[in-house]
């Protein structure tokens, strides 16, 4: 057997790794040029030559690899992956037993012990997502491990490791039976259409499950709801299940219209009562202001970064002004559901943006709840960026 490569951590990084930080940033190791082939397993050492952990080399925009184990003798073989996957499945037992929810995450990267890999379950089918060529090098081992611990109808994958972590176009079917397109999945009794083999996104963001449920159960009855950045209308579907009087969905992408309609039909929502608008959210705010259209509830769930023909939006820089726009068309006493999946700042910094917006717009805020990642999206305490989702329900008094 060839000797495992040894890479030494930079002096400043040793303690961070010893405390369990799982991601290796470029500047946390010395002589990283020794690493050439993604997927290489190496021992991370102190500058004095003591073993810290075993890691793999894989390039993501986040870093150059992930820690796999701090046990020196543990081999990174099929048994290793079987162990991680079966522990992850065990953790989701309650999800498998709950018949009202058939779509959830069964493996959440470093939160389940292997950075760079997520696996989602969609009503009998599994979707593996690879975030570097490094983790993809373990593909057949991981698929065999998955097969050793569970049965499935079919397997799909998304390779998200083109430059800047972009999705690589292609046939995403791996093996087993092909899923119907659309495949119908359930979430807390609601039905959603997903397409496992139709580009980068399947049609539902599983991490928002709890926020959708809160919207449905506590904020929708009799209410008018504006769902911005609506994508397939999942928040509006939840609002209708909760008895909303009317929803308006706004998204700049053309595909949005038929996908929202499809989800409405699946849930018995009469779509004539609803508006689905294909337009820029910022243009919609201008339009609503001009026409004095106001809402009881506004959902703001923008991507962290977005570029349209007219402007770029960055959650870090522009969330405050997005909130100011929303405040201008919220009814007195209405609720803004402000969400961001940007891992670059935490809840405190997000709340600061909310405070700023309320001061600027001269309104009072009352945060009625904060929703974070659901239980199928575990993260490790030593890696805060993994706890990325922040959803704040803000009651606005004018
Ligand atoms: N809130 C959605 C997910 C949003 S995904 C859900 O819960 O399912 C982000 C969406 O924002 C994409 O559909 C994209 O087309 C849309 N988008 C990005 N920039 C936009 C803009 N300026 N105006 C309207 N939609 C935008």
From TrEMBL:
Residues 11-69 form the RlmI-like PUA domain. It comes from the Bacteria. SUPFAM superfamilies: PUA domain-like, S-adenosyl-L-methionine-dependent methyltransferases. InterPro entries: PUA-like_sf, PUA_sf, RlmI-like_PUA, SAM-dep_methyl-trfase, SAM-dependent_MTases_sf. Residues 183-357 form the S-adenosylmethionine-dependent methyltransferase domain. This is SAM-dependent methyltransferase. The keyword Methyltransferase applies. Keywords: Methyltransferase, S-adenosyl-L-methionine, Transferase. GO terms for biological process: methylation. GO terms for molecular function: methyltransferase activity; RNA binding.
